[in-house]
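Box 3.1 A note on notation
Throughout this textbook, protein chains are presented in two layers. The first layer is the amino acid sequence; the second is a token string describing backbone geometry. Keep the layers aligned when reading.
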Amino acid sequence: MASLSMSADERAAIEAFRRDAIEASIDKLVLVRFTADWCGPCKQLGPLIDKLVSEAGPRVAQVVVDVDRQPLIASQFRVQSVPTVYAMVGGQPVDGFVGAKTEREIKGFIEKLVATLPPEEGEDNLDAIVEAANALLAAGETDQAAQAFAALAREAPERADVIAGLARALIARGDLDGAEAALGTLADDSKDQSLIQARAALDLARAAAPAGELAELESRIAADPADHEARLALANALFAAGKQDLAAEQLLGSIAIDRDWNEGAARAQLLKFIDAVGFGDPWSIGIRRRLSSILFA
């Protein structure tokens, strides 16, 4: 890219670009934004990209090139109009767009490219530790799982799966306030499935009847299978205790007797169970099939 006829300022600009864009993109995503002072759409696009790059974390960076002050770089990229944005990964341009975009469009553009980056050093080990912590939780080792997830949360507080795992472990220990505090460290509007499941599990745990009332609820149902309130309360308590199958049986029984009771409350609660477990989980798939067979019988 360099030439003997370049001025000292041009050489400095080229070297800075080589360092900040080409070399930096070896292990991160670098957005190269071509702009100009006279460009109206550039002034709208710039703050959006500034904001999203800042939010994206250390694996995303930005280099701004003024086409009037750095025409050699612009010509190398064959920039014909501004704003133009190129995404660089591995030292090469891999994608880009021309013109103004919405914040949502730019965010999707960044997220798509970040997903293609190779794992950072130590990231594979972190994933393995998360998997081990989930295994502890699944095995009922709630104290150990909570300790493992708490350590992970200190190391990777931005990871939704880590925070969700910590919340689920604390719920299993009965520390509902701790679980709520953990979930509060991430945005409430996050669409991450693990966070949705953890929040659903917390809502269900708060609604669950105390363990001492289980025998009374079971007696009420034995005396009157159509006692839907008792079935609902018992299902919540059973689910909070990790007895998903028994909890679902109570709600499916209620739906089979009267699917419209309390505006479909049993069905709505069963769907909350499915949300908490995960829509694609084999257990959820099986329960959805059984629900459909009742509703469409």
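Strands lie at 29-35, 60-66, 84-89, 92-98. The chain has a mean pLDDT of 88.
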